[in-house]
């Protein structure tokens, strides 16, 4: 209840302590409850009999809001509001979406599994190995479509990640505990996709045979592509190979073999597991290892691995594509200039006067935790920028972006203050960073909002990544609420109101009038 109990005077309880009541006290409470029930069931007085004055519902609501009582979110009024927001969100769930026009279908961005685009990397807890695998994946897949997270051993055993993972990557050659093996096999049996990089995991149908003498030795790999052609390359051996289990199990396909002593041994296999189309591609060659990672190979070995490095990426790309990922690489563009846009001359003028006061004495420079912002006034030439510096144009050119129409924005804006003064950028790290240093100090009457067509480092709650490609509605709004106001007493409901506002807005578009599926990130930043 600590995060659900509110007090009318703005205080927030930090800790709730349980108190043991003696039996006599509990008995008294029970008797009082019984007396109250008897009073409620007594026959009512005749209509013409004098009645005690009753407080109107308006007065009761005012008393409730003015803080004469502790405000519990379990009260009738708040439960009604909460249930209505939950019901509205349920109506917009994926299960209720009819066949609607879908831009993703045309561009090939649809995720057929319906799972969140989370790629989890298990390294046995090694942070250095995770960073290496993360960099490797970012070089192979479209980073605007997937979020990569480190799955630690304790999280693998306790947190409910199985239903929310598009791909699990096992990148440790340490022996997995029985509990971890069961967890990962359970993920497979429920339709999960898994990539094993020198992992000890062996689903039914396979056994792992050690070849210690060949550990980290250069070997020749023959990989079979999906078009039945073969690719030859030099890679490092993990020191183990696969063998088919005579006891049977899942269906095993041979994708890659290494040559040793005139024999070919299984190094890359695809295994299907369970009735729900679980699929694993398991590798016992170190596809995750770059040529310069092992000095012991010497100059000759380094040259041999380097010659095969392009084919190593080709094998990885083929495997990741077979597991349902998009490997169409997209370059992360540099941050673009920020433009000050106006829909209200008076409010924008107020913001410009404040900006002049803040930056006028420092040569047009504003400094914050997000970096340095250089203000370019009307008629000035843009300055030279160093790393970490941005430029803010107070007077945008006639055509400043192909992704944002100020005319359309102004035409549909119906507020008196909110969103009237706009900071716009085609590309930024996050819209919150655009307002860093401005949000808490700028005049409230300016209605400041930051809008971006694309974010490169969008952040959600709890350290979650926030994918922000072109086509998303991304903005940060400067909003101040008195703590003792009606909405100020219900700050958590702001996220529901924002979500419902977006849903109602999208439903005005042709083809989306009935049901809409919208994902809204509404982190609340108290200033």
TrEMBL record:
UniProt cross-references to PROSITE patterns, sorted A to Z: BPL_LPL_CATALYTIC (PS51733)
- Region (Disordered): which ranges? 33-65
Domain (BPL/LPL catalytic) spans 407-527
Q: Where is the composition biased (Basic and acidic residues)?
A: 34-48
Q: Which GO terms describe its cellular component?
A: cytoplasm
The molecular function terms of the Gene Ontology recorded here are: biotin--[biotin carboxyl-carrier protein] ligase activity
Give the InterPro entries listed for this entry.
Answer: aa-tRNA-synth_II/BPL/LPL, BPL_LPL_catalytic
Q: Which PANTHER family match?
A: BIOTIN PROTEIN LIGASE (PTHR12835), BIOTIN--PROTEIN LIGASE (PTHR12835:SF5)
Q: What is this protein called?
A: Holocarboxylase synthetase
Q: Which organism is it from?
A: Sinocyclocheilus grahami (Dianchi golden-line fish)
